[in-house]
Please model this.
Amino acid sequence: MLRALRELATFLGKPTSWVYDNHAKEGVPSFRVGQQLRFSPAEVRRWLEERCRVAT
Model:
């Protein structure tokens, strides 16, 4: 299921403006449907896991 910008912002605990401004810079996996950004929850979870790994 695809998610909208507002849902991803809530999930990440960031304002929608952060998600919109930083999706490309931070590499948040996204794509456009018309002019709207959409996100795959599975891809976002993988992205978070890769970025948030703590060295042990």
